[in-house]
UniProtKB/TrEMBL annotation, chain A:
Keywords: Membrane, Transmembrane, Transmembrane helix. The chain crosses the membrane at residues 6-27, 308-329, 341-368, 375-397, 409-427, 439-459, 465-489. Residues 24-185 form the Inactive transglutaminase fused to 7 transmembrane helices domain. The keyword Coiled coil does not apply. Gene3D superfamilies: 3.10.620.30. This is Gonadoliberin III-related protein. Residues 257-500 form the 7 transmembrane helices usually fused to an inactive transglutaminase domain. InterPro entries: 7TM_transglut, Papain-like_cys_pep_sf, Transglut_i_TM. The keyword Membrane applies. Pfam families: 7TM_transglut, Transglut_i_TM. It comes from the Bacteria.
From TrEMBL, chain B:
GO terms for molecular function: ATP binding; metal ion binding; ribosomal S6-glutamic acid ligase activity. This is Alpha-L-glutamate ligase-like protein. The keyword Plastid does not apply. It comes from Shewanella woodyi (strain ATCC 51908 / MS32). Gene3D superfamilies: ATP-grasp fold, B domain (3.30.470.20).
Amino acid sequence: MHSKKPFYILVALLFISGIAASVFRGIEHNVPFLPGKQVQSWAVDAKVSFQGIGEPAEVSFSLPNDPAFEVLVENASSPGYGLTISQDNQDQERRALWSVRSATGLQNLYYKVTLIPTGTTQVIAEQEPTAPKDFIWPATEKDAAEQVISKVWAKSATNLTFAQQLNKALNAAERTQNVELLLSSNTPTKLFLHMLHSKGVPAQEVSGLYLEDQRRRQQLSSFVEVYNDGEWILFDPSNGTQGRKDNLLLWDRSGKSTLDVTGGVNSQVNFSMLQDTRSALATSLDVMKNQGALDFSLYQLPLEEQSLFKGILLIPIGVLMVVFLRVIVGLKTSGTFMPVLIALAFIQTTLLTGLIGFILIVACGLMIRSYLSQLNLLLISRISAVIIVVIGIIGIFTLLSYKFGLSEGLTITFFPMIILAWTIERMSILWEEEGPKEVLLQGGGSLFVATLAYLAMSATWVQHWVFNFLGIHLVILAIVLLMGQYTGYRLLELRRFKPLAGDK
Amino acid sequence: MRFEFAMPSSLHKSGVLGMNKRNIDYIGRYNPRKFYKRVDDKLTTKQLAIANDIAVPALIGVVREQHEIEEIPAMVEGESGFVIKPSKGSGGKGILVITKVEGDRYFKPNGQEVTHSEIYRHVSNILSGLFSLGGAPDVGIVEGLIQFDPVFDGYSYEGVPDIRLIVYKGFPVMGMLRLSTAASDGKANLHQGAVGVGVDIGTGKGLHAVQFDTPVDLHPDTNKKLTDIQVPQWDFLLNTASKAYEMCEMGYLGTDMVLDKVKGPLLLELNARPGLAIQIANGRGILPYLNHVDSLGNHNMTVSKRVEYAKKHFSHNAES
């Protein structure tokens, strides 16, 4: 007797890797654990317009770059313009560059993007930013600025607290005269930024867009990002708040201008946006496609093959049901896995139509088979005859239900005909040998198991899991292997052997 | 009563063997796959038994091809009756019993006539593998009719009573007498309604009887008290069953035997997957006996020593 240890290690490995693969799918690729889950997505349109002056024009426009939003689809429409989308790896900046040899009159360029929230609102700095250059204050502001800064500096301990205190001072209900003076000639954003820079605190101006459903002609707002311990913290100097709102999209984090136009005047950019809901699954598939993570997966198959696999991948569930019902419960089925095949047919026909269709076909088949049995045919040709007759019966039922307008009847063509023919043959022999009661019993038992298998296989979350989380099949394999080692009593044996219990 | 469930622990305490444990721990472990042909193919079993001096029902002929079916009437000429069975059949399926031959007219035990074309169709089905496991092509065996011993008169309805012994590693550990009833249509299979009578290994006396897994006292058709039965030639039966172990080398084996009026005990067939109803017929679990045999380790006992040992230790009175 060899050790069972390797077996249990194998089962544990299968189990763990199956679960791990599924969890990885769910978390890393954002494949939803439940079917029918929806996510919010945002469609944002940016319209860049300027007046051409009859000269070659170049429009450089920064594109959204925000870890809190994933770009699903983006496209730019700009007839007559050449377009490049460039990515600067250094500071992670993406820009669209439109160019045309000659632009005259009002020019409109459009950029459309579909975004989905990722849930990460932290902005991690790729590398430590270099210390900013000291800001040179104009003579008129120098004293006021230095007073304010030194006062705040004394009350702070870190870059972050300095920025917080500064933001508070600039937005206090009763501002000091110094602050009032400075704000009269500076925007809050610029002032905040300059004050941070003059103490060597890395900070940059960023622009963001508030996403609100069905808004049009929106503008970017400016914010300031302050570097602290590997992270960029967002401040809004115009109202003294810190941190970001969920509906804020950071459009441009380069600190450079959002829109640069050469060869045109009066340039401006307007945004309009729409909120939408879309399937979470389709969304994560699109994201995976963008990231090139689809290279070796079922999703890249043509749709027809995918739907074929959706059916095939349900078989392990049906098989698991049969193993469970036989090994643990102790039910008998006629033909080990015939109930699984019937259940697969039920998925196409729906349960009630399937049951009625199955019983009708088998009943008709039995009648015809009883005639065939009088002919003393060889078994092979008799079964072949039954197969042909079954096809005939299915054809007639389909035609009849079509004539009567019963669309459900049309689906009975999904029944596997060879299986039906064998069922009819077995039932017929059973009838001759053991009588109709046994036929009802065994046929009913098979249909019962098929129905249970169908219920397991048709649950939408089961269908969702077996196709989208392939790891689950390793778990099923592990369970089947384990059940193959189960030496305990079957459920129905507890009843069967009841007279033997507690005899001694 | 019928819808009550036992606690698994109480069944375990009573030593009841379950189907899964039987399949994995006994059949899977002690019945080597390569020897299955010796028990699954009744023709092979018969030839092996003859070679090992174990008495079996007379072999009249074997039908291997379609065209040989025509030869059956010639084969059975002069026989008072005969049995046609598939060589690889299971569960008593496909067995045709002819108890009366009048010229070229054949009659079943219930007096119904069987036409030639019915026989032809039946044998043709056997050859096509309708009754064999997995539908493999098969051969038909034509056997002499067993003239069953009148000692069981009144205990059996129409069919032949047979004696099932479970032989574990050569030791007969549990026995049962199977009696057909009207409900089982003359067949000796318990699931078809035959009565099972647990038989004491030490004495061959009836102990306890069941039909459809429910205890009974009297035969449902003849009303004879079942526990009064004493199986004759008990030692001979035990020896034959024990010998079958050397013959087929299966560790966990079911032997089916019948008592012929003239020839004495005959080995009918062997079973590598004997059912568990024998425990219900005996009113106790089989595991204590199997564990007892396991505790002996490698013993090198002869057939007669094993039978003596079994009689001494596995009798119901000798709390082993």
